[in-house]
Design brief:
9% of the residues lie in helices and 46% in strands. It is mostly beta strands and 828 residues long. The strands form 5 sheets. It has a 22-stranded antiparallel beta barrel. The chain has a 6-stranded mixed β-sheet with strand order 1-2-7-8-5-6.
Amino acid sequence: MEGNMTKLMARLMWPSMIAAVTVASPAFAQAADEGFVDADEQQLAEEPAAPAAITVIGSRRKDRSITDTAVAIDVIQPEAISTTGYSDLNDALRTLVPAFNVKRLQGNDGSSFVRPVTLRGSPPDHVLLLLNGKRRHRAAIVQIGTGHATTSGSQGQDFNVIPPIAFERLEVLRDGASAQYGSDAIAGVVNVVLKDDTSGGAAMAQAGKYYDVGGETYDLQGHLAFGLGDVGYLNVSGQYTYQEKTWLGGKNVGAEALREMGVEDVPRYTAGNGEPFYEAIKTVYNAGIELGGGVELYSFGNYLKSDSSVTFFYRQSEAAGGLPAHATYADSAFDNTAAYPGTFDLRSIFPGGFTPEFEGKTEDFSVLFGIRDDEGAFNWDISGRLGNNRVDYTIYNTINPSLGADSPTSFDPGGLTQREIQLDGELSYLIANDFFASDILIFGGMSYRKETYKIRAGEPASYEVGPLRDLPVGSNGFQGFSPEIAGSFDSESYAIFAETDFDVVDSWNVALAGRYEDYDQFGSNFSYKLASRFEFSDLLAVRGSVSTGFRAPAAGQLFGTSQTSQINAQNEFILDAVLIPGSPAAQIFGSEPLVPETSFNMSAGLVLTADSGFTTTLDFYQIDVDDRLLLTPPIDTTAAQRTELDAIGFANGSSVQQVRFFQNRLDTRVRGFDVISTYGFDWGATSRTSFSLAVNYNEQKLRTDPTQFFGAGTVIEFEEGLPRWRGNLTVNNEIGDFELMARANYYGSWKRRNGNDFLQRDPAVLFDLELTYSGIDAVDLSVGARNLFNKFPPDRGEALKAVGLIYDNHSVFGVSGGFYYLNARFSF
């Protein structure tokens, strides 16, 4: 099937490129899609002959417009985001940019709260998020339970923290940019540009739900802009989101059997691999004051407070329905001392078993102050930022088995914090000359960054060893952080960087960047980038780049650790520990200290722009990463190894049945291409139709043989665990006061690990539809559907159906089916 689809896409792609050469009717000259365009396709609707002079990421020049960048950049307007029906930037980008992907992970510990993204098949910590061109801090959560080798173990940034109503635009750089923006930009950069208006405002309200699985969702957003006299601006935006869980109808056969037996207090819900509960308040501000002489004092920042919860697997209290009781609990003997006589039966606390509920309360804030001069040939910018992301965990409806009948049923297992401080200074100068076709940009700067990663210890009952020493220790489902694990860990880095950009002749642009970085724990590195664009004519241009990158392990990867309850291939609950790499405990299993990742990135593309407004861009890329940092698959422990863990004082050493840890053991390669085509035409006095086709092909390979930690299963998961083909076709029809948007989203085939086997997942096509009425002054009313025909992912197989998991909870397009919504937008 995949081979036939490859041939089909190729047959569709080349005629569209040829059509760009042949279509030349000047009557239709206008931007094809005002919501989403490649940077080389952006035009001003009011003045088609004049390109939009907006500086974007990928170039340090103020006079570099989005129509002549040397690398692939997508510019996404707020209108395009609103038509996705999402208030989460993760999902909006997944819908609009096929090279960008994200999953909804339910019941996967912290990964349920900060979703791992990929760009061009690269993990979250290879994608850099900027706010107004400045780096944002990482999230505190390290991705442990992602279920996929590509994203597992990464510590990236949280993309869902800024209200979409605050966006002036989004910029997505699909190219390696570590030499320009620093570590984490191996695959690309996403830049959120905030509004900087001096008056006006907007409001938005949306309500919706999934077709037949619940998930009622309400979203309110507001934006206000103020002038600060005649010399400044202040923009403030806010968002409130409330989303109920979705329940997919799965039933645990054991729980159902207990109900039939008349057992009381069996939990109502025993499987919940749908959307999590989520409630959040998000705010952001953007301000600036002119001090005179081109100097501006500026500041922006955000604050988020959210509460989210997910449901873990049901724990059965006694044998029924062909499933055993949770043998580690029922009828287990106490340590028979005078202090603890008798026996413990789980039914004394949870007669009908229990389903742990895992909650994460997140607080995220950032503030940046700077002063800059951006007028004239000589410019400078000095700024400092503070960013903090904190998550505090709570787990309900569970026990610490080793405490027996004295166990609480809710626990504070602790929390995580990521804090960053950065100071940055930049200078740029345009050198006038008679030799080249443009002034020569000379840009340089220095940066200092300090990261602090904190692990807060939980309450004693969440981790302590009780009298039942033969039973698992700690709050079941997610064990608390003990004082031995808790602590504060710092890392520091310095960077010196420079860049030059100039036009050799009017049709040929060249840019060169270099960055020297020094990390206190990993030494120094030099990264470079060379990019160029040559325009043969108004119709055809070619572009390409070569770059290197460097990424030092994040503090959370160096010092993070956890212990959780997992379910194995036999549907048994076991204790899984993530070990600190290179620690005495990890060395028992062959772990070595971590080293930085290095990368080599190549891209080459072409841009076709016809007079008719038909445009096509085609960009090929290859990303090689050496010493790729991955979290190992679970390693089963032996009795001898558990004895060693006990001997060195490792918490629950005798109970740990699986371990994992971070390692640099593989070299990887990502190779693929992006195609974006747009076209639009007017018909009648008030009607217009526009088309946008975006396609990504992405192939991942291991360049080294798997080691003792990464076997054949990891190879399949890494190379085939994500769709190679992704694409969407969007059609917008404007007829008077009405606009109808229709979108088809394509996901290629992929494979899903299922115990020791893999399940083949067939390609899928989902459809979105939105109708908007704008006949009321300053008001837009919309009704829409995501996944219009309510398509669900394939099931997980009979074994997991028995415990209530119906659909694949790692599906690339979600598990809850169609979502239908009403939306009202007002501007003034």
